[in-house]
Amino acid sequence: MRPPATELSLEACLDRHRLSGGRSSLAVVATVDSTNRLAREVARAYLADDCLPPQLVLLAREQTAGRGRRGRSWHSPAGQGIYTSLLLSMPDSEALAALPLRVPLALCEVLDDLGVDCAIKWPNDLVVGGRKLGGVLIEALAGPRAVIVGYGINGSQEEAELPQPDATSLRLLTGTPRDLSSLAVDLAEAVVERLTVEEPVRELVRAYAGRSVHRPGDRLSCRQGDEVEVGRFVGFDESGRLRLRTDEGERVFSSAEMLSARGAAETAGNRDAPGE
Ligand code: BTN
Q1: Which protein residue's CA is at the shortest distance from atom 15 of ligand 1?
Q2: What are the helix (H) ranges across 84-200?
Q3: pLDDT tier at 144 (50, 70, 90 boundaries)?
Q4: Which of 36, 214, 244, 266 is such that its CA lies 20 to 30 A from the CA of 260?
Q5: Peptide bond into 123 cis (omega under 30)
Q6: Closest listed residue to residue 97, CA positions, set 255, 275, 262
Q7: Which has more pLDDT, 224 or 102?
């Protein structure tokens, strides 16, 4: 039986991709443990033969073990959300470093067209009204040669179907079920497109800062490895690293994890955050 038109469907994704003349190869699977894990397997097979993996978009209708950052899981019920991994080759480490800025920006720009006023909670959570709509998990393989950009967006869940109270979905935000198949393909194309645009990092940082939920003076806790620092948000530096004023002076975080944020941003998630 065909799923409802609003649910993510394999055929509808492939149709949309064909019609839009998408530049990347697209593979859509009904169910997989994790699209990031699958993308890694594909990449490894190429790298083992000393070949650069092809640019590939992987979509799943369902993930049985969707992964979030820092060992969290990503709740991925069949047809109800967008679960995507892009397999990309990065020309250099600068391009790799800009990914955490470019990817959430591209996603937000597409979501703008749905009337969803999406902000970014550093490093790359998509947040609306303090509740998490989506998240990004970027994993590098073999240095900058192959990178997996995974993202999940909560789609058609009702309040009671969301895994935790600080999550939200497109359906709750827009009041109507969305055609998730078209949106999934459009989002992937927007991300791929944004990666090809030459844009000075300073412009990227400016755009990113304009979307940030954090305001100067907000009290934040940042984790890097086992270390947790508490301080006041200062802003972003010229490469998009987060500046935190602590009692010991200023610290910059390039891949730290926000533990909590008081002020404009409260923590928000999809699910199964280990106790923090
Ligand atoms: C986070 O906010 O913690 C990041 C969530 C990333 C979830 C996506 S869903 C598609 C891709 N495959 C995964 O296993 N994870 C990412």
Answers
A1: 67
A2: 93-112, 170-174, 180-196
A3: low
A4: 36
A5: yes
A6: 255
A7: 102
Q: Is the CB of 269 under 6 A from ligand 1?
A: no
**Per residue in 171-181, pLDDT tens?**
999 998 789 99
Does residue 5 carry a pLDDT above 70? no
Res 177: pLDDT: 78
Q: Report angle CA 8, 11, 14 to the nearest 5 degrees.
A: 95
Question: Rounded to an integer, what distance in angstroms lies between the CA atom of residue 41 and that of residue 26?
Answer: 16
- Determine the pLDDT at residue 79: 93
The two three-digit tokens of residue 109, written as one number:
């720009």
How many Cα neighbours within 13 Å face the side chain of 273?
16
Token match 């987060």: residue?
242
Mean pLDDT of 249-269: 58
- How far apart CA 102 and CA 252 sit, in angstroms, is 20
At 72 the three-state DSSP class reads coil
User: pLDDT tier at 142 (50, 70, 90 boundaries)?
Assistant: low
Whole-angstrom Cα distance, residue 259 to residue 108?
Answer: 22
- Binding site membership of 69 for ligand 1 (Cβ less than 6 Å): yes
